[in-house]
Design brief:
About 10% of the residues are buried. The protein is about 70% helix and about 0% strand. It has one domain (about 20-85). The radius of gyration is 14 Å and the shape is globular. It is mainly alpha-helical and about 90 residues long. It has six helices and no strands.
Length: about 90
């Protein structure tokens, strides 16, 4: 556990933001002409807020991974469930 924290503290900021970039590119709420719809933008803002909030928590890595999986695999509901039931401070 301490090895993972030590490794994460040595990574550059861009490597730490890589999961956030993956989340941003996974948003598939596009209009017919390829532009992002209002629903897609709202989802993206909600998901980014959930991930940032998740990363700021002082939980152990296992709990963060579980909540990250919930946010990732249940795009809209996962973020809402995280904000309602995670017990964050």
């Amino acid at each position: 556990m301490n090895t993972l924290r030590h490794f994460a503290s040595r990574l550059p900021l861009t490597a730490l933001l890589f999961p956030l970039m993956l989340l941003a590119t996974s948003c598939s709420r596009y209009n017919d002409n390829g532009s992002l719809s209002i629903i897609g933008v709202l989802y993206l803002i909600l998901a980014i807020a959930a991930v940032i909030s998740l990363l700021k928590q002082d939980w152990d890595i296992t709990k963060k991974i579980i909540w990250g999986v919930v946010i990732w695999f249940f795009p809209v509901l996962g973020s809402i469930i995280y904000f309602l039931f995670s017990g964050r401070k």
